[in-house]
Design brief:
- The complex is a heterotrimer.
- By secondary structure, chain B is of the alpha/beta class.
- Chain B folds into 3 domains: about 170 residues, Bifunctional carbon monoxide dehydrogenase/acetyl-coa synthase(codh/acs), Chain M, domain 3 (2-Layer Sandwich); about 100 residues, 3-Layer(aba) Sandwich (Ribonuclease HI, Chain A); about 110 residues, Bifunctional carbon monoxide dehydrogenase/acetyl-coa synthase(codh/acs), Chain M, domain 5, CATH 3.40.1470.
- Chain B contains 10 helices and 18 strands.
- Chain C is α/β, with parallel strands linked by helices.
- Chain C has 12 helices and 12 strands.
- In chain C, β9, α8 and β10 form a beta-alpha-beta unit.
- The chains are: A alpha/beta, B alpha/beta, C alpha/beta.
- Chains in contact: A-B, A-C, B-C.
- β18 of chain B pairs antiparallel with β2 of chain C.
Chain lengths: ~475, ~475, ~425
């Protein structure tokens, strides 16, 4: 069963003093943010007092997600992954968006390494009011040399705040890097059947999260996790292997799905950790270099597929914007909260470079309504669309619930500057909002209010048959 | 019919305004004393389907620019038509009238205000028969359970007065029945899953004393909707056996909740915020939230933008309460439920309410029992928990006594705690006025060791930078 | 503890008499960078450490640190075996056959089957995937073309004037399982709207020219679509081709009559609302449309424009069907073509990289998301995107794997030289 918490489940373990030291107004507000995983227990100073010891323990147990949250890195770029409480996002929501790492390796010339790390760190793509960013760098040990690996890690640590994934199966090489950057809480990649004892000690000594790798062998993966847990490690990341070539893709999707189902629905604690996927592994294919564009495409859509099937960390090799764009967009999509109605910013939108002669439409700011209308406005030759803030609620509901009233529409038209955008002094309101037409006309002196169709697919014919003739007659 | 209809009939005319200079005649409105509209459920044999009658002068016989007494009586019949649906059917007169091009309709019941535009009159809308025909057609299309319909328009002042007086009595009787109708009096509730489009497991149970969360559908509406569209999202629920009359648990409701939430929820306590509370979708009017510090409830509506007394704004709580998940202590509720005798009955009802956002209070002032009017705070008197406690104690809220007891108990606990932890070892000496290195920023952790005795082999304190 | 500071209280050295007060300690610290104390005992009534936020952030994830085990603790591998959670479901998805051969009353040379699932999509450890999801490419008719992005058009330039050749190209060259003939010119709002009988003639011609199963797409007007359905159903009676689509605002009784009389499959199209899906499907089923002829389409928002909504809705629909809701026990269709509404797919914007790549990826990601959520039929436009999605469908639908996927050792990604 999904582990869904309510504020009261957590509130009862808090001190209840409303001291405000956590920065929230009171304990209830803090409890609410705790279950939404926006704050951590450590922000409550009082709970660590001796008298609350039992409460603290109980609360940790309650808050522990079936897929534990694991933090990688330190400082303001630290990233938390996992924290999943349900398999399907519609059951509640998915917390902690998939972290995206770009690979570098220790044989890159220093300037190249620094440049790539900086590119990753400064990467920003703005989309629907959100800044989409990359989260980590994965440093691969290609050289086999502890010195080279440690030096590269050190450079990254000094040049950037990005969390690192240190990738090598050699414990000596790993330790050398941990000496350099172990205090930055990198993710250690990876303990496997051969090296896990040494890696357990490293993870414990340097207090770093540890990846457990057992490619294609889930029983081994579980055995390793069981053993590492017994050893006292709890910040683990699971690597069942990312096979992408041929039927390997089938096995990978299958393993990821089984692992997540089993962790949450069967509450298998050994497997209750975030999943790492490595789409970069597509470059292992002997044919990868033959057609680079096609390999990059595969990396892109397979990353998206793996994200749909529960990857909490993605390690990518390609850095082309067109490879990253679909991945970042799909992550933004998947990690919106399905409990909150999808909305777009209440503002004025341009469709197909409109002019002062283009039609002006007004609607609600439900994203679904907006996207539908946008398509139809596009088909009708473009125009201006003004979205009124209805809290993302659909048009019919907001008209019925008085959240799409004449004065709200008039106000939004004024605020967004829409009234100055067109010279024809006319606005088209949705058919379902017909009842506000008269009142709106009263409010917008000298303006004509058109009642558009109820179904937006009729917009093109409405423009041709009603709006244009009227405009021409003017 | 539509071929001969002189004007268009379409929802696009719904909001049409007819200004004084464009008006041909006015029917009802503020200038005349008597006006009303009325729907009556009749036996099949008393209704002649499609019959339109006009008592008094017809449209073309009224003086241009005049205001006239006006009554519209719609008589309906059908196997599924019943008295309880009259008001629901009647409310649609407004919508349907407004679909008619050049016919403006405002308000309802004894307060209607209609106008015919000059333009429409010149196009041929010169008789009430057109309005009647349009209404009859729309009714049968939108409410197919109406098998027969006849409509009478009154403009004869004497007749209108007569109908008006009769109508007032009918409204009053209907309201009394609606107000008085208790959950105990019916054997059918309704369940609505309209909101499952975004709240997967949410099922609304609508009873005479519990309106839908969105506030838009009461028991009568639901009853009509279920008849109009038996395959639609609103279906009847056989109430079944009452397991708990106080908390409001019914076997029939439980069964339907389990079925329609696909097993996600199995029990509902309809009159409680605890245990097995009703789920919430996302489009509720208001949220009722438990305030543990005072063991009472706060209420806030969607229009209230700031933080409430518990520090959370409506939007944050909406996420918590929404999505069709049973959330103890948080409940989305429809406005009308505040006026119900069953309002939070299991939890103490109105006596448990301590705080209401002023925007909401303005809308439900009438629902607040007189003895609580000065005892329930808004954000103005109580922006936070501390001021709320003070307010409750000052005003003597019914929960104040318990609050004082809770406070006293907490204090006793507080005092007890250090005593227990006091060490046997000699206490140290306190020094004040120490020079402190750079003051700690906000949000740090404070670890306090009381009665500590620490043995250290080596302690290094380093300064940063 | 090096960034901790101690405040307010005092510490006293023990009996040794070389006690140092906290005040003194702190003033020492003022002057120097570090203070070192050896063999001290601090006795305090109350000792407060305040960790600064920067420390907190660093320390937070580690707290509470797992108790570091003693070095000598033996490390033994505890071998356990992985047992996946295997669920069972009361419901199953109906199987829909597209196309009918001469034995079955039609004239198609082959048939396509979709649906039949007894578990969520590709949960092959629970139940095998009965039929792989199929891909349909668009062919536009009767005589006009919609505005198509250049990146798509270029693939069909040579066949634009010959719809049958276009269809052949889609299937033979681009590997589509079938095609959809979109009768967009029947849209009554167009100046020279194609009358329904003429549209039927066109379909009749196509049915003669190609022997594969196919789909027929309507223009989206509730009245005209019904007319088209009624006319078309006469010419393809018994062929079991798919009519896309019937919507809630159509005369469902008349639609169902035309469909059942000619044994056509149908896509029931709802608009991003699960209640509408439920209502439309139940009504069609009640009106006698067999489950094995019904495909449901909840509408697809493209990547970046509501795809997650469609994704979750399809997951919900499929789970509801498996849990026993009869109206959801039919195959799902996903119009991945809607991805092209996104500027990211078609716009020529240099900073976003070449649109020749962006476009097909956008459509492929949309289709893949739909497929992973339960879609059995993908309606697509770009040949490359179609190829990607079909290839993924083939791979993901395998119930038994050859073991060669292990051939390239996965661990090698760490040290690979690229």
């Amino acid at each position: 069963m999904p582990k869904i918490l309510r504020p009261m489940d957590v509130y009862k373990y808090l001190p209840g003093t409303n001291c405000g030291k956590c920065g929230e107004a009171n304990c209830m507000a803090f409890a609410t943010k705790l279950i939404e995983r926006q704050v951590s227990i450590e922000q409550c100073p009082e709970i660590f007092e001796a008298k609350y010891k039992d409460k603290l323990e109980a609360m940790r147990e309650v808050l522990r997600a079936p897929v534990k949250d694991v933090t990688i890195g330190v400082g303001d770029r630290a990233v938390t992954v996992g924290g999943k409480v349900c398999v399907y996002r519609h059951e509640l929501t998915w917390y902690h968006p998939t972290a995206i790492a770009i690979d570098v390796h220790d044989e890159m010339p220093e300037d190249e390494l620094v440049k790539r790390v900086e590119q990753v760190e400064n990467f920003v793509f703005e989309r629907i009011g959100m800044q989409l960013k990359l989260d980590m760098v994965a440093l691969r040990c290609v050289s086999g040399s502890p010195e080279k690996f440690a030096k590269a890690a050190d450079i990254i640590g000094k040049k950037s705040k990005l969390p690192m994934i240190l990738c090598t199966f050699n414990p000596d090489v790993m330790e050398e890097a941990l000496i350099a950057v172990g205090d930055k809480r990198p993710l250690i990649y990876a303990a496997n059947e051969r090296n896990w004892k040494e890696y357990a000690k490293l993870a414990s000594k340097y207090q770093c999260p540890l990846t457990v790798s057992a490619p294609g062998d889930l029983s081994m993966l579980k055995s390793l996790c069981r053993s590492l847990r017994k050893y006292g490690l709890d910040d683990l990341v699971l690597d069942p292997g990312t096979y992408l070539v041929g039927e390997g893709f089938n096995e990978t999707i299958n393993m990821f799905t089984m692992l997540r189902m089993t962790a949450i629905e069967k509450e298998d604690k050994d497997l209750g950790y975030p999943l790492i996927a490595v789409p970069a592994a597509i470059w292992l294919s002997p044919k990868a270099k033959e057609d680079e564009a096609s390999t990059k495409m595969q990396e892109s859509y397979m990353a998206c597929a793996l994200m749909s099937r529960y990857a909490d960390i993605l390690v990518l090799h390609s850095f082309d914007i067109w490879v990253l764009l679909p991945i970042l967009t799909w992550r933004q999509n998947l990690y919106t909260d399905p409990r909150v109605p999808l909305s777009v910013k209440p503002t004025i939108y341009e469709v197909k470079e409109p002019t002062e002669k283009s039609p002006l439409y007004v609607t609600c700011n439900s994203a679904l309504t907006y996207f539908l209308i946008r398509n139809d406005v596009e088909a009708a030759g473009g125009g201006w669309i003004v979205c009124v803030d209805t809290g993302g609620i659909s048009l019919q509901s907001s008209v019925a619930g008085k959240r799409f009233t004449a004065d709200m529409v008039a106000e939004t038209l004024k605020e967004t500057g829409a009234l100055e955008k067109v010279k024809h002094k006319s606005v088209i309101i949705p058919g379902y909002a017909a009842r506000i037409s008269g009142e709106l006309e009263d409010m917008l002196k000298d303006w004509k209010v058109f009642v558009g169709p109820r179904d937006s697919s009729a917009i093109p014919s409405f423009i041709e048959k009603v709006w244009k003739p009227e405009m021409e007659g003017k | 019919m539509s071929e001969s209809m002189p004007v268009e009939i379409s929802p696009v005319y719904e909001g049409e305004r007819i200004r004084k200079q464009d008006m041909y005649v006015e029917l009802g409105g503020p200038n005349v004393e008597h006006k009303c509209e009325l729907v009556l459920a009749k036996p099949m044999e008393e209704v002649e389907d499609g019959k339109i009658s006009i008592v008094g002068p017809d449209l073309n016989e009224l003086k241009e620019g005049s205001s006239n007494p006006y009554a519209v009586v719609v008589e309906v019949a059908g196997k599924m038509v019943e008295k309880d649906l009259e008001s629901v059917i009647e409310r649609r007169i407004h919508d349907f009238s407004n679909y008619i091009e050049g016919y403006m309709h405002l308000n309802q019941r004894y307060d209607i205000w209609c106008r015919i535009s000059k333009k429409a009159f010149n196009k041929g809308l010169n008789s009430f028969k057109w309005i009647g025909m349009a209404l009859a057609k729309l009714y049968k299309a939108e409410m197919p359970f109406i098998e027969k319909i006849q409509i009478t328009f009154y403009t004869d002042p004497e007749k209108v007065k007569e109908i008006y007086e009769q109508a007032l009595k009918i409204y009053e009787a209907r309201d009394a029945r609606a107000r008085g109708l208790r959950d105990e009096d019916v054997d059918t509730f309704y369940s609505c899953v309209l909101c499952q489009s975004f709240a997967p497991q949410h099922v609304c149970i609508i009873t005479p004393q519990r309106v839908s969360l969105c506030g838009a559908i009461n028991w009568f509406d639901a009853r009509a909707a279920a008849k109009v569209d038996p395959k639609g999202p609103i279906i009847p629920v056989a109430k079944g056996e009452c397991i708990d009359p106080i908390r409001g648990e019914y076997t029939g409701a439980n069964e339907i909740v389990e079925k329609r939430s696909l097993g996600a929820n199995k029990r509902f306590w309809l009159y409680s915020c605890f245990g097995y509370p009703h789920t919430s979708c996302g489009c509720f009017d208001t949220i009722l939230f438990y305030i543990p510090e005072v063991d009472g409830f706060g209420c806030v509506d969607r229009g209230f933008k700031g933080p409430t007394v518990n520090g959370l704004p409506f939007s944050t709580m909406a996420t918590q309460v929404g999505g069709g998940i049973q959330t103890e202590g948080f409940l989305g509720i429809g406005m009308e439920y505040y006026r119900s005798a069953k309002f939070m009955q299991a939890d103490g009802g109105w006596n448990r309410v301590v705080w209401i956002a002023s925007t909401l209070r303005a809308r439900i002032e009438d629902a607040i029992p007189p003895h609580l009017k000065d005892k329930i705070a808004t954000e103005k008197e109580a922006p936070d928990i501390e001021s709320l406690k003070k307010f409750m104690i000052e005003r003597g809220h019914p929960l104040a006594k318990k609050l004082l007891e809770m406070e006293a108990a907490a204090k006793a606990e507080e005092e007890k705690a250090p005593a227990e932890a006091a060490p046997a070892a000699a206490p140290g000496v306190t020094i004040s006025g120490l020079p402190l290195p750079a003051a700690g920023g906000a949000g740090g952790i404070r670890i306090t060791l009381k009665g500590a005795k620490i043995r250290i082999n080596q302690l290094i304190i380093k300064k940063e930078g | 503890m090096e960034e901790a500071k101690e405040e307010k209280k005092k510490s006293e050295g023990p009996s040794a008499g070389r006690g140092i007060g906290v005040a003194e300690l702190l003033s020492l610290l003022e002057k120097s960078k570090a203070v070192e104390l050896k063999d001290v005992e601090i006795v305090a009534e109350e000792l407060t450490f305040e960790l600064l936020p920067v420390v907190l952030q660093a320390a937070a994830p580690a707290a509470p640190p797992p108790a570091a085990p003693p070095e000598e603790k033996p490390l033994e591998l505890e071998r356990v075996s992985f047992e996946p959670l295997t669920q069972t479901y009361v419901g199953e998805i109906a199987e829909v056959q597209i196309g009918a051969t001469s034995k079955e009353g039609g004239t198609r040379s082959r048939v396509i089957k979709i649906g039949g699932e007894k578990s969520p999509p590709f949960y092959r450890w629970e139940q095998p995937t009965p039929w792989r999801p199929v891909v349909a490419l668009d062919v536009f008719g009767v005589d006009i073309l919609p505005p198509l992005p250049k990146t798509i058009k270029q693939w069909y330039m040579d066949v634009m004037d010959d719809r049958a050749a276009w269809a052949e190209k889609c299937m033979r060259e681009y590997g589509a399982d079938l095609v959809t003939f979109h009768l967009i010119s029947t849209d009554p709002s167009l100046p020279n709207s194609t009358p329904a009988p003429e549209a039927a003639k066109f379909i009749d011609k196509m049915a003669d020219k190609i022997s594969d199963p196919f789909m027929i797409g309507s223009a989206g007007d509730p009245n005209k679509d019904l007319e088209v359905l009624q006319e078309v159903s006469k010419v393809v009676a018994g062929e079991r081709v798919v009519f896309a689509s019937v919507t809630l605002d159509m005369d469902l009784e008349a639609s169902a009559k035309a469909l059942t009389k000619s044994n056509l499959d149908v896509i029931a199209l709802a608009f991003l609302d699960i209640n509408q899906v439920k209502e439309l499907n139940s009504k069609l089923l009640d009106l006698g449309v067999p489950k094995n002829n019904l495909i449901t389409d909840p509408s697809t928002g493209g990547l970046g424009y509501g795809l997650e909504y469609t994704f979750s809705m399809m997951e919900r629909m499929r789970l509801a069907g498996l849990k026993g809701d009869p109206s959801m026990q039919v195959p799902i269709s996903c119009a991945a073509t809607n991805a092209w509404a996104a500027r990211e797919a078609w716009a020529k914007i240099e900073e976003w990289g070449p649109r020749e790549y962006r476009g097909p990826i956008w459509e492929a990601v949309t289709g893949l998301a739909g497929m992973l959520a339960g879609a059995d039929l993908l309606m697509m436009m770009h040949p490359l995107a179609a190829k990607i999605v079909k290839n993924a469908a083939e791979i993901l639908s395998k119930n038994k794997l050859k073991e060669d996927w292990r051939e390239i050792p996965y661990e090698n990604w760490v040290a690979m030289k690229i």
